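Worked example 3. Consider a protein that binds flavin-adenine dinucleotide.
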Amino acid sequence: MSKRLAEMMKERTLLSFEVFPPKTDKGLDKLEECLEHLYAFRPDYVSCTYGAGGTNVGKNMDVCKMIRKADNDTVPVTHFTCIGNTKEEIKEKLQNYLDNGIDHMLAVRGDLPEGWSGTGGDFSYATDLVSYVRKEFGDKFEIAVAGSPEGHIACRTLEADIAHLKQKQDEGADYIMTQLTFDMEQFKYWLDAIRSAGITMPVDVGVMPVLNRESVINMCLSRNGCAIPRKLAEVISHHWFDVDENGNKRQDVLDAFREEGIEYTVDQILQYMALGVDGIHLYALNTWKNSTEILNKAGIRSVV
Ligand code: FAD
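Given these inputs, the predicted complex is written out as structure tokens:
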């Protein structure tokens, strides 16, 4: 095992980025360039999504290998899902990751492809995946799991969702990566609630930058049912009228949205730090300028 991120989180707040696998070689080159900029922040790890939104896995392995071979201490973390995977396939694919030196994973159920009612694989839940990975691979992987501060959309109550998160810990998960939330009060409530429920895993907070109206609305509502709190609703309202008389988008309005959105994101990060979270996991969305501006404004590992 290269490094134990959960152990490191006991010592300090980690910084990490999340990227997604590009579809083409050109996209892969662009991502490599983007990562070169992000490495300036000395991220402890970079995670790469796996088939998010029900799309295929694409170049996930190439991205993980690219991070691993970079000349620094950044650990690659692959996301891995239950979607369409039999036990045998899971074993084979995970062995392939290990053979390539990738021994950190985020074990999630996976986004169900449109029209599917189940995973189409041997496991229905992330709990089963964690249990299986521990059974087949022992401690060879460090395993992160997803936690939803607002409760997973399919779960009847927040308490039941927290009980399932506790189950992931009991099955051997090492730390939590959270689903995006823009609602700090809900986050604080959830953090207290998981600790009261006996969940001791470190909490690495997923931070979705607020950059434009469409993506905020899409991120909140397309799958996760996340709330848009009043303060964020104000950011959206301040810059709602973004089309000129010819029907073209107004760049000045888009820029003003981005500026206020970045302030919102920086404020969220500062609040998370004040709460003593174990990690800041910034969704880089395969670009570097936004992340650089956000982290420099937040004063996190500023790049001189
Ligand atoms: P689970 O923990 O399996 O939970 C799903 C639902 O079932 C919840 O309502 C839960 O309460 C309930 N549940 C859990 N265990 C049990 C049980 N044993 N019995 C009964 N009910 C149970 N998706 C992708 O496809 N690819 C990615 O790369 C990806 N990356 C992600 C990264 C992060 C940080 C996060 C937070 C999510 C990511 N997702 C990704 C999305 C994730 O797959 C979805 O949110 C999915 O809907 C739930 O995943 P989960 O692991 O939380 O599921």
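Take a moment to read the result before moving on. The chain has a mean pLDDT of 95. DSSP finds eleven helices and eight strands in the chain.
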